[in-house]
Amino acid sequence: MAAGQDSAQSTNDNKLLCMAEMVSNIESSCSKPDVRGYYVALEDILSQYLRKCFHTNFTSSRALHTMLPDLGSGVTAYFKRLSETFIYPQTIEVVPTFVPASQINSEIEFELEHNLTNSHDGWILDPMGLGTIYNFDGFEDLTAYVDTPFVLGGKSESLQWGDIHPYFQNTSTYYNKALQKFIIVVLPLDGNVKLLYYRRDVFEAHNISVPRSWDEVLNVATILDGLKLDLNNDTVPDNAFCFERRKDCHQSYFDLISILAPYMQYNGSSQGVIFEPQDVKDPQKNPAMVLNPAMERALNIYKKLYDLSPNINAEAKCDSSGAAPADAGRGMAKSFASGTCLMGVGLGDFFKEFKASAFRGQLGVAPMPGSFEVLDRASNQLVGCTPILCPYATRVTVAKTETMNASTLASGAAGVPVSNSAGNSATPPGPSTATTAWLNRAPFAAGGGWVAAVNARTVDYRNLSINFFMHLSAVEESWARVLDPSSPFDPYRLAHFSNISRWVAAGYNDNDTINYLTAANDSFNDRNIVLDLRVPSTKLFRDIFDSAIVNLTSGSSVQDVVSMLNATFSKIFMDPQQKQFRDLFAQIYFNTINYNNIDNLNESALGESDGGGGSPSWLPIAIVLPTVGALLLIAAGVVYEVRNNRKHKNLFGKVVPPGVGPDTTILVSEIQDYALLPNALQTEVVERMLKEHNDCLRRLLLRHSGYEGSSEGDSFVLAFHSPKDALLFAMEAQAELLKVAWPEEVLALGNSAPLYVQGIMSTGKQKALDDILDGSEEPIPTGAKIKALTPGLGAHDHGHSGHFGSSGATLPSLVNVPPTETYTFSNACRRAWKEASKDDANKVLIFRGPRVRMGLHAGVHSEHDITHSKADGRTTYSGDTVDMARAVAQAAQGGTVLLSEETYKKLPLERLWDKYLVLHMGEHRLREAMAHLNLYHALNRTLEGRLAYVGPMTSLLQVDPGVLDAPVGCVTVAFMNVVGAQTLLSWNADVAQQAIKIFHTVVGEELKRRKGYLVEAVDGLFLAAFQRPSDAILWALECNEAMIKQDWPEDLLAHELCEELVISTPTKEGEVINTVVFRGLRLKTGVDTGQVLGEVHAMTGRMTYRGKVMNRAARIASTASTGQVLCSSDSWQLAMTADSQAMLTNKVSGTSLGQFRLKGVAEKIEIYHCRKVSNVAPARRASSLVMSMADHWKWEQHLAAHPGGANSGGAGNVMGGGPVGPEDILLGGDSIRAAMLSPRSFSRRTGSFRQRNGSDLDATNTAQLGIELAADGA
Questions:
Q1: Per its UniProt record, what PROSITE patterns does this chain match (predicted)?
Q2: Strand order of the sheet with strand 785-789?
């Protein structure tokens, strides 16, 4: 006993010594603050104390959350492995969230913009968003960390910042004007630069020199095309050049800037290529340098090389859908490696794809071609390079013809210098004389390469995040990425460029590797390297150039394309109402291109902007419409539609009447309330009004190849050869009707009077608006969405000061609406605009004159519906198509264009989204004899204010709600899943599809009854949104009940996932009551309520949602067991507060299951199990946790010590009388249920409900399991 006491005393003394040491360490930490921060130092000390004195580990209160781009299965698996094995100083759970690469920047901006309290701790991002994100104060300053060793897994590790190429060291910094110094804000993970790739074997065999200028590239490409080689033996001549033609790959911007760069930038990186730094602050000047001979030269070269590239359909889908734009050129890299083309420009993909090429070892690589001429910005003319004008140019030997007229040289192949060496040209054939000239190169760092950043706002996890990303950027992990041939990561460390043997050991050819690394390293060392844009609306600017290339390659002249580019940029930058955007743009532009010129940043070049410093202002809004940039794209005509002036016209210029066919579209137009006008106006006035109306429509009709079938009074029946032509006519007609010289008497009428509207601006602190074009959803940018936002969740426009459309009207905002309020999208639109007077600033004219409604229907299927008159040569239309178009028109309100579903399906919306909105208006029954059909409202973006005045459709019955009925603001979201849907589809696809169709029909009908809004229905998923959580809960419960009553296929009921399960319950009288628990498909549902960002998708016209509530609801659903309806405490409390009577009437009860930490959700969530009291509920609740034997034993002991019924009160008391913490519930609940009730405890068809030991369940056990049995004698 004494020995035991001595041992205990010794243990206590040791603990006291440990504690004293810990106190001393804390005091030392206070006197000498750790560079990582006081909080982190305390965390380290506490970890050491617990580990040394108590032999246990200390962990943070939650996992480290990172947001990473989805870059393909191989890279994603690598990131997951790295996350799972991260050790600091013990194993820390790292939870990565993978986002499509093309969307990750917009997601990061969304987190910072809305100041989400549970945002990610760090990100990997596309550098194009650096300027905007830095302006949110989102980046942690990493300057003090990059040279500090860190410990991972007991090993000291170093970032070795000095090994990172100086170019990437420079571009990882951002200028802090307050501190007047550069700070490091990102860690490089990737190195992007465009290079020229060519086949060495071909060039040597045909004595062709490596082209040094773009004119020489064109000459060489012309020669290669003339050789008609077929070296890959595919029976098709190898193409001379690799240019990506597919618009979906978004490569044309990068390729065009690569050509343009050496003509525009010749005085260092701070000179810029696209925008003139000296003009970005001048409101009287357009800073975009597009109207000049350099741009014309670049477009000419691009078009000629494009014609020599593989003939791939421009509308085809990109191989790298979802990739960041700079990384989407993999398709051309594969074409080059396969021998389809013999020369091209690209990133490191070309080199990596060549690793497995049949032509391995024959890869030639050179820095990007340059130019002997540059644009003199003072005279706006191309002039020859001189050592003074082009200080970074190199002197080379050329033929005189090359220096005389480069544009003439580019038109043919004569004078191409020939040699067997890559860099030294011999005398070319022909009579020209050799001379010397100065060659200006400007290699283009397209995209910039992926970087990692740490969220400055999640302070408590800053150190973990820094160490995780430093480990990711460190030497060994960097090698794992850059050597992977499938990854988009290219070399960025000095070791990557010098250690050739490591590349060779990884399987790359030594000659190919040397050529690639030499060219890449030389490019990064070039002081004239071109930095890609990192400014607000970079995505928009790229889209403008992409669209210009579409024009160019579709038949527009170079001069027309240049003019359109200039007009577009002029309207963006010279609008006086865009001053805030221009100031912010200027600040960020200088910060990102003048990285090597501190003096420029500190002096007057920047100036003081009114609101440019610090974070952007904030603006709470109810509905966000496309930015001025997107609308100016439309106004300038940059999105090109090839329109042959003689299309659908005969030799005399008259439109050929459309015939029978699925694309023939009938448009019926009418003036609203026309029958009432004769009572309000004199006949002469009505006749003048009709003449103006008819003249306007007929004037536009020929332009859109439309044919006038008939007209009577105010009504026209017009026929078009395609739905697109009909839509374009309708859209232009609605805009032109505002300009008609209507009689004053008509304009004096109430419904015909001019109506101006104005966006309601908040009087509180403003939030900056989201860049509507950031983060594309292939093939449509997110600019193709209207955003309906809850108060306080404004969309950020990167400096656009709240204006849309050419009219300059202000963006609407929601005033004095509580953040918890729920409203329909229609109500949001009404709140967003107010009526304005003619003299108000920022007004928009949305109505003027008679309000004309139009209906469109596509498809004339019978020749009997088309009548040709020999007497007057006219063609008229009748039959079902005209009847449908007229019914659609009569369902519309004045000023509205409605489309039938057949018309909507045939529209090329991917090419129209930036001009017009198409909104789903729900499913309607228009006439007794007509079937139900979906209607769509088409709206010119310049008239978006009309959304505030769209009344209900005048149909017989609205069967299904439309987007105007969709809830926005504080929304309840329900995820309903069919249990085992994929298993059933794999088992018997036909039977499963039949069952899922029944499921969709039943839950859809229940959804209509509960006034819910269908968001998505795919296979076994049904996603719905509700204004009230009570409706969502009742909908889910009623769907469970409905599943039992359906007429399911017998084969389905024989499957164990769908068989009938019955509970037999004895009564006091000795009778047995059988209750069907499951029969057919089984469901589980998760419900949550919260603020959402609602977006009207351009392709579907339906409302989509994003926000934390979506993830929470999905996770709650995944946590549910078969038959369960689970909801968050927010949903439950709101349902019981706002709709308690409905819940009580339907006998809905809720039991708190405790607080849970769900995957991907930072905060713990209290979850309620909802059920109807009269029903038997399924017993088990699933969990993603695996319980250890020790935990299992602990819970068995707890149950043994605390017998008794369930406590449905607080989250901490779930079973028995003793307090149980939320963590215990999370760890133990499922295993306890599994221990007491096996999956086979239910009898099949008939039988009793038993425990494992065979005894019937008693009231205590059923209460513990959350099961309610029918009352005795019921």
A1: GUANYLATE_CYCLASE_2
A2: 623-624, 785-789, 1093-1097, 1103-1106
Rounded CA separation 479/502 (Å): 9
Element (H, E) at 95: strand 94-100
Alpha-carbon span 1251 to 1233, nearest angstrom = 10
Task: State the Cα–Cα distance between residues 1020 and 938, nearest whole angstrom.
Answer: 32
Alpha helices in 474-534 (DSSP H): 475-482, 494-498, 500-505, 510-525
The DSSP line for 925-994 is E-STTSPPEEEEEEEEGGGGGGGGG------SEEEE--GGGSEEEEEEEEEEEETTHHHHHHH-HHHHHH
Cα dihedral 111/115/116/122 (nearest 10)? 50
| C-beta of residue 917 within 8 angstroms of C-beta of residue 938 | yes
The confidence score (pLDDT) of residue 355 equals: 94
* Unique residue bearing structure tokens 């100086």: 166
Q: Is the pLDDT of residue 511 over 80?
A: yes
Contact 562, 290 (CB under 8 A): yes
pLDDT, averaged across the chain: 77
- The SS3 call for residue 814 is coil
Task: For residues 756 and 1045, give the distance between their C-alpha atoms in angstroms, rounded to a whole number.
Answer: 55
One-character DSSP codes across 557-590: -HHHHHHHHHHHHHHHHS-GGGHHHHHHHHHHHH
| Segment 955-958 long-range contacts (CB within 8 Å, at least 24 positions apart) | 955/891, 955/924, 955/925, 955/926, 956/924, 956/925, 956/926, 956/927, 956/928, 957/924, 957/925, 958/922, 958/923, 958/924
Rounded distance, CA 265 to CA 254, Å? 15
What is the mean predicted confidence (pLDDT) over 431-442?
78
Confidence (pLDDT) at 692: 94
pLDDT tens across 852-903, in order? 999 999 999 998 999 988 777 889 999 999 999 999 999 999 999 999 999 9
Contacts of 499 (CB under 8 A, 6+ apart): none
- 1027 pLDDT above the threshold of 80: yes
Q: Please return the burial class of 815, using the count of CB atoms within 10 Å of its CB with bins 0-12, 13-18 and 19+.
A: middle
pLDDT tops 70 at residue 599? no
CA angle centred on 112, ends 107 and 117, rounded to 5°? 105
For position 64, what pLDDT does the model report? 85
Q: With contact defined as beta carbons under 8 Å apart, do 1271 and 1068 qualify?
A: no
Give the other-Cβ count within 10 Å of 958's Cβ.
19
**Cα–Cα nearest to 896, from 961, 833, 951:** 951
Contact 908, 701 (CB under 8 A): no
Distance CA 202, CA 210 (A): 11
- Strands 897-900 and 933-940, by their bridges, are antiparallel
Query: Quick one: pLDDT at residue 14?
Result: 64
β-strands 967-978, 957-960: how paired?
A: unpaired
Backbone torsions φ then ψ of 363, nearest 5 degrees: -85, 125
Residues 6+ apart with CB under 8 A from 943: 734, 735, 844, 846
Specify the 3-state DSSP secondary structure of 381. strand
Which residue did the predictor score with more confidence, 65 or 761?
65
pLDDT higher than threshold 60 for residue 598: no
* Torsion sign (Cα): 445, 447, 451, 457: positive
Sign of CA dihedral 303, 306, 311, 314: negative
The span from the CA of 947 to the CA of 786, in Å, is 11
* pLDDT confidence of residue 257: 94
Pairing of strands 852-860, 897-900: parallel
454: Cβ–Cβ under 8 A, 6 or more apart, which residues? 121, 122, 139, 140, 142, 462, 465, 466, 469
pTM greater than 0.85: no
Instruction: Specify the range with the lowest mean pLDDT, choosing from 2-16, 422-436, 479-493, 1007-1021.
Output: 422-436
Distance CA 1138, CA 1125 (A): 19
| Of 53-57, 283-287, 591-595, minimum mean pLDDT range | 53-57
